[in-house]
Amino acid sequence: MAAKSQPSAPKSRSPGGITDDRVASQGQWGRAWEVDWYSLASVIFLLVCAPFIVYYFIMTCDQYSCALTGPVLDIATGRTGLSDIWAKTPPLTKKAAQLYASWVAFQVLLYMVLPDFCHKFLPGYVGGVQEGAVTPAGIVNKYEVNGLQAWLLTHLLWLANAHVLSWFSPTIIFDNWIPLLWCANVLGYAVSTFAMVKGYFFPTNARDCKFTGNFFYNYMMGIEFNPRIGKWFDFKLFFNGRPGIVAWTLINLSFAAKQRELHGHVTNSMVLVNVLQAIYVLDFFWNEAWYLKTIDICHDHFGWYLGWGDCVWLPYLYTLQGLYLVYHPVQLSTPHAVGILLLGLAGYYVFRVANHQKDLFRRTDGRCLIWGRKPKAIEVSYTSADGQRHHSKLLASGFWGVARHFNYTGDLLGSLAYCLACGGGHLLPYFYIVYMAVLLTHRCLRDEHRCASKYGRDWARYTAAVPYRLIPGVF
After folding, report:
1. Measured between alpha carbons, how far is residue 86 from residues 15, 57, 71, 178, 361 in Å?
2. CA distance 46 to 106
C-alpha cells in the first residue's frame, strides 16, 4: 500500500531541463525551486479546502447518517442553513483535549525513550538504529526504528483495558470523534507552523533547505528536508508513522465496539475492514526500515502537506469505511465476503512482493533472482547537491518489468476491497478508492517528473524498457 499518502501535492515546473543533469537533479530532487501559477493555485486550494473536506465527511456521518448529498440538499431547499449545521457540530471539549494530549505524549514517549527490542527476537524484522537514504546535500541520517514496538505496546494496553483494566470505554474514540478532530487540527497546524519557522531561523541542516520565495508553497510543501529536535526526534518519521498510523487500527477497533454497542453484534463487513486495514498497518511497521527509502522520506520536505496531513487527513479520511459501518451495518453474504477478502489479500500480495523485489534488488546490488531469473536493470547516474556523482540501477524485472509502479496497482486493489466491504448503499465509503486512484496516478507523474530531471537520458532508456506506469496496455 502507498505509504500514507495525504492530499495530492501540486505539480511543479522543472527549473532545468534534463540536459544539465546536475542542475536538474538539484532542482527536482526533493521539491521544486520555483513555483508556477498552477502550483500556487493548487496549494491555495488545498490549504483552504482540505480542512473543510474532512469536516464535511465527518459532519455528514454525524448529522446525515453518511449521506453526502444531505447537507447540500437541505441548504439548497432552505430546510437548514450553515449556521444550523455548525450549531449541531460538537465543540472542542476538555475531555477530548486531555485524551489527545495524552495520546500524543504517549507516542512521543514510546518513540524517544524505549529503544527497539523487537528486532532481537523477531526473525526477519529490521529495527533499531538504521540509516536513511542520502539527502540532496549528501547527508545520511540515522533513525531509531521502533514503530512495530510502539504499535504492539499500544494495542496490548488497549486490549488489557478492554478486558481487564476498564479504565475507559472501547468506544471512547468514536464518542469523542469530532472534538478529537479539532485537537488533531490544532496539532497539525502547530507542527506545520513550527516546522516553517524552524526552517527559516534554526534548520537542522541548512544545505537541505529549499526556499521558493512563495510563502504559501513554502508553508505547504515545507522548507526543511529532515527537521529534527536533538539527535533522534525526526519530524518526518514520527508524524508519518506515529501518531496517525498507530491510531488507525485503534480507531477501527473503537468503531467495531460502537457497532456492537448500538446493534448488538459486529458485522462481517466491519471485521473485513478491520482485518484488511490492520494487515496494511502491520506491514508498514514491519517494514519501517524499508520505508526510510520511500518517496515520503527521500523526496518530500516537511511542511503542512505532511504535518497536517498525517495528523488530520490520514486518521479521519482513511477510516471512513469503519465509521460508515457504525451507522450502516452491512452483513455480507459468504461468497461476497470471501471475494472481498481474496481481492484485498491479492492486492496486498502484489504490493508487498513488488516492494520486496525492489528492496532485494537494492540490497544485493542486483545479485539476486527475481521470478527465478537474474534481474534486468538499467544503469543510471545522478549528481547530488554536493557535486558528487552517484551511480545506481533501476529494476526492470518481476513486477517492475510489468509496470513502473505496479506496487501502486496492488495498493489500489486493496483500497477497492475496503470500499466494497461497505456494500452499495452510499457513496461516502467509496471516496477512498477515488481519492487513491487520483493521488497515486498523480504520484506516478510527480515521481517520474522528478526521475526524468534526476536521471536525464538514463530515465528515457528505462521508460523505453518498461513502457507502462500502472496497468499494462492501458496506462
Report:
1. 44, 14, 11, 12, 53
2. 30
Question: Is residue 208 a contact partner of residue 320, using CB atoms and an 8 Å limit?
Answer: no
* Of 314 and 138, more confident: 314
Every domain of the chain and the residues it spans: 21-465
Q: Coil, strand, or helix at residue 399?
A: helix
On whether the CB atoms of residues 410 and 345 are closer than 8 A, the answer is no
Q: Residues for the chain: how many in total?
A: 475
Q: Where are the alpha helices (DSSP H) in 171-267?
A: 172-175, 177-201, 215-221, 235-241, 244-263
Mean pLDDT of 448-461: 87
- Tell me if the pTM is above 0.85: yes
Spatial distance between the Cα atoms of 407 and 90, rounded to a whole number of angstroms: 40
SS3 content of the chain, % helix, strand, coil (to 5): 60, 5, 30
Q: What is the residue-wise DSSP string for 250-263?
A: HHHHHHHHHHHHHH
The residue among 255 and 42 whose pLDDT is bigger is 255
Among 420, 394, 245, 284, which residue's Cα sits nearest to residue 341? 420
Evaluate the omega torsion of the peptide bond into residue 123 and state whether it is cis, within 30 degrees of 0.
no
pLDDT at 24: 35
